[in-house]
């Protein structure tokens, strides 16, 4: 009788509402288990969860992990707890990846991805497919795909990283410039210079614009091929494009110039880097160490020690490694007194000589026949629990 007061359209709305309400009042057993797990996980009632564990399925695990996106530690704890009961599905693994990525817990993300690739033997493209499928459900970000590329490079899965990058491109989805630079750097570490240049030249087709890290990689690639003039031209190209070089940009060229004996070029860059960068960059400990090492390798020990004094005057603390370079070269050139003098300087500055310093002096003492002095030094090493190589 009451329904007769409503139009046909209104009756349909009421009927749908009634059936929806009926479903709400009679939820499925899966929904009940899901809610029970969530409530007890929130309060860390592991004993109750233990009793619910026979009801767990892989899809239910993924659903619970996704539900706790705002409590990533709980999601991770639950994931690890389930791992003690049965093996995770790839979907639940990728769901956790998305959750951890959203909370920027990238170390744990990379550990998980590396394990999936190496221990589980999951091909990167299979991982990508599941990450894509779970992407929307977890409201994730492109950082998940960045992490996959990084995970691949960390375990040496170069082709896997390459396949992921190009597969994403076919989906009109791209990794960020940071992951792109990571892959370019990986190629350089493998000394795959030709492949680096091919990929670098194709950046435009991927829609990328070079940043300071990209340019640093280009400088590094040029220096690996000893093309120093071109490397310096990249510095000017950066500044022309209003991208300030970093101290790394200069250090790469300075270090390469020192290694090939072009100390004049390294000193010019050292003196002019602040001016060239518009007072944006100053020499750091790496800069000084590279030049000191360059002088030492070319037998210019007085100039090396002069640079050491400049380093101290610039309020940049020399490391034991800095002194070790000088000590080894003094000893090599037969100036053991100077080498031992620098050992005293190390102690005076509150540093502790390491096995590199001791081994260097031991080597040259034995070589010059200073057996007694070498024995005393060796005893001192033993007292200080320093193991000779």
Automatic annotation (TrEMBL):
Gene3D superfamilies assigned: Tetratricopeptide repeat domain
Keywords on record: Repeat
Question: Where does the record locate the signal sequence feature?
Answer: none
Asked whether the UniProt record includes Transit peptide among its keywords, one would answer: no
- PPR repeat ranges are 211-245, 284-318, 319-353, 354-388
Coiled coil region boundaries: none
Write out the similarity annotation: Belongs to the PPR family. P subfamily.
NCBIfam families for this protein: PPR
Name-wise, this protein is Pentatricopeptide repeat-containing protein At1g11710, mitochondrial-like
Specify the species: Arachis duranensis
Q: What is the lineage of its organism?
A: Eukaryota, Viridiplantae, Streptophyta, Embryophyta, Tracheophyta
Task: Please state the gene responsible for encoding this protein.
Answer: LOC107466745
């Amino acid at each position: 009788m009451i329904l007769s007061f409503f139009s046909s359209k209104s009756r349909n709305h009421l009927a749908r509402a009634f059936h929806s309400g009926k479903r709400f009042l009679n939820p499925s057993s899966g929904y009940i288990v899901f809610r029970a797990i969530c409530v007890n996980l929130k309060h860390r009632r592991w004993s109750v969860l233990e009793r619910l564990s026979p009801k767990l399925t892989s899809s239910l695990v993924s659903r619970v992990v996704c539900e706790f996106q705002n409590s990533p530690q709980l999601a991770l704890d639950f994931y690890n707890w389930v791992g003690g009961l049965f093996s995770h599905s790839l979907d639940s693994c990728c769901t956790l990846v998305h959750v951890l990525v959203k909370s920027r817990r990238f170390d744990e993300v990379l550990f998980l991805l590396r394990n999936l690739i190496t221990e589980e033997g999951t091909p990167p493209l299979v991982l990508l497919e599941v990450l894509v499928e779970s992407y929307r459900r977890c409201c994730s970000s492109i950082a998940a795909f960045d992490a996959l590329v990084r995970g691949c490079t960390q375990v040496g899965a170069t082709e896997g990283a390459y396949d992921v990058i190009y597969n994403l491109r076919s989906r009109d989805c791209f990794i960020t410039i940071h992951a792109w630079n990571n892959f370019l750097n990986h190629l350089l570490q493998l000394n795959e210079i030709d492949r680096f240049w091919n990929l670098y030249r194709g950046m435009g087709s991927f829609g990328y614009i070079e940043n300071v890290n990209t340019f640093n990689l280009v400088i590094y690639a040029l220096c690996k091929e000893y093309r120093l003039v071109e490397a310096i031209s990249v510095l000017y190209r950066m500044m022309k494009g209003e991208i300030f070089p970093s101290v790394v940009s200069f250090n790469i060229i300075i270090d390469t110039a020192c290694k090939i004996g072009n100390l004049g070029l390294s000193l010019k860059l050292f003196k002019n880097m602040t001016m060239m960068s518009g007072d944006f960059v100053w020499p750091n400990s790496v800069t000084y160490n590279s030049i000191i090492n360059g002088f030492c390798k070319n037998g210019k020990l007085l100039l090396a020690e002069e640079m050491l004094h400049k380093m101290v005057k610039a309020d940049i603390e020399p490391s034991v490694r800095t002194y070790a370079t000088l000590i080894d070269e003094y000893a090599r050139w037969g100036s053991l007194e100077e080498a031992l003098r620098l050992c005293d300087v190390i102690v005076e500055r509150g540093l502790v000589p390491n096995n590199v310093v001791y081994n260097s002096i031991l080597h040259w003492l034995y070589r010059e026949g200073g057996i007694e002095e070498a024995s005393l030094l060796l005893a001192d090493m033993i007292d200080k629990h320093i193991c000779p190589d």
